[in-house]
Amino acid sequence: MMACRFEPDAIRAAASGEWTSSLRTHVASCADCAAAAEVGPWMEEFARVDDREHILPDPAVIWLQAKLTQSNVIMQRAALPITRLQIASYLAVAACWASLLTWKWSAVQAWVASLTPSRMVMASASAQATASLSVSFFALVVVLSSATVFVAMHTILAEE
Amino acid sequence: MVAEGILIAPPFVAARAATAGRMPNQPMDEARFEAFYRKMAGKIWSYIYRMTGDSSAADDLMQKTFFRFLRSNPVIADDDHLRRYVYKTATNLVFDHFREAKRDRAVAIEMPQSDFRADRGELRHDMARVFGELKPQERALLWLAHVEGSSHEEIAEALGVKAKSIKVMLFRARKRLGALLSKKGLAP
Fold this sequence. Notes:
The structure holds 2 protein chains of 2 kinds.
Chain A: H1 7-16, H2 21-29, H3 31-48, H4 59-103, H5 105-113, H6 117-125, H7 135-159
Helix pairs in contact in A: 1-3, 2-3, 4-7
Chain B: H1 13-19, H2 30-52, H3 55-71, H4 79-104, H5 122-132, H6 136-147, H7 152-159, H8 163-184
Helix pairs in contact in B: 2-3, 2-4, 2-6, 3-4, 4-7, 6-8, 7-8
């Protein structure tokens, strides 16, 4: 549905008070024009009444900020696979730690318990071997510790 | 789109299609943006300010409008398409602003009266108060139709409604404003 083509004339006539008879007849029969004529002059006056004084930001600033925001968005988009990889690495390392400790939990508990001074003295006095863990376990611990440090360092350096 | 709530359809597809063969589709450069900004910024600020009644919100939303405009990588189509897109973006941002205010409930939903102080002139104060009593959509309709001289299609695009609904919506908004003006004794 289009606006009535007499609407602008009706608004102008309502504002100036200069009505032609044909326009007056039309407005009497056209609800849209009557409504437009009723509020049109008021709206024009409202638009003319000056806004509070304001200084608009410099377009160069807007341009620069928009470009910076745009670059940030592009960077975030580009960094998304890296972030996902980092999360996957953290999860993998945590899973490895959990698996290792679950697998060797009883041996680790025995080994930790054997580290008390009294047990150590007793063990040395009786020339009895303390509870021990395999070399491969310690090798795995070293590997996992290195992986944890590597992932953490990667995150810190990437953020910087 | 980054954390601003609403999604806007790719803006210049129509413009690209409309201008194909007429004008090269170059991305907007800074000089061109500056010219467009200088032409539009004041109008957009006034529009947002009349809609919200809050000058700091108007400043903020106007900047966001132009950020979004630039983020959409506008091509040099005809100014009319760019103008329509800017009004549509500004309208969406204003409506989002009202929605957020409603959600927060800490911010007044209606136009804050403090910005329209009586010492700035009784007339302005009264006019702003009357306009503030309208719904945001009615304000947008009346402003775009009467002040910007937008067509029904342009208003529909800005408000995201069907063009054929505008005639009825505009009629109702005018009647409501007319009734308010009569009630306040401001009718012509």
